[in-house]
């Protein structure tokens, strides 16, 4: 094998690796976007459920709040909705 042939194969392999890494990177970005959206939707849904006073639908008793500064599930629901759900959606919108 001549030196020029070897260089040609090396160049072809580098191009193939770059193409594969970009393809994997694109798939990973799409996966992360999907996970962020799902997590945001679930956080907002659960937060609204907590704020509505229907924590019993999620099988959560008031005993869970024992020893915490909260008397009910309203404040934790607001925190879950705004902080977790809102941050996922706002981050997603900002990076689009």
Topology:
Elements: H1 3-51, H2 74-95
Helix pairs in contact: 1-2
Low-confidence stretches: none
Beta content: under 5%
Q: Count of helical segments?
A: 2
- Computed structural class: mainly alpha
Could you describe the largest sheet, including whether it forms a barrel?
A: none
Average pLDDT works out at 80
Question: How much helicity do the residues have?
Answer: over 70%
Commentary on this structure:
It is a single chain. By secondary structure, this protein is mainly alpha-helical. It has a domain at 29-95. It is built from 2 helices and no strands. It has helices at 3-51, 74-95. The protein is rod-shaped. The model has no long low-confidence stretch (mean pLDDT 80).
Protein traits:
single chain; 96 residues; mainly alpha; rod-shaped
Short description:
It is built from 2 helices and no strands.
């Amino acid at each position: 094998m001549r030196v020029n042939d070897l260089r040609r194969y090396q160049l072809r392999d580098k191009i193939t690796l770059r193409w594969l890494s970009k393809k994997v990177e694109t798939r990973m970005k799409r996966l992360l976007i999907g996970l962020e959206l799902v997590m945001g939707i679930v956080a907002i849904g659960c937060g609204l459920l907590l704020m509505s006073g229907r924590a019993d639908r999620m099988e959560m008793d008031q005993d869970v709040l024992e020893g915490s500064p909260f008397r009910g599930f309203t404040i934790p629901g607001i925190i879950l909705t705004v902080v977790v759900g809102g941050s996922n959606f706002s981050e997603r919108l900002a990076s689009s």
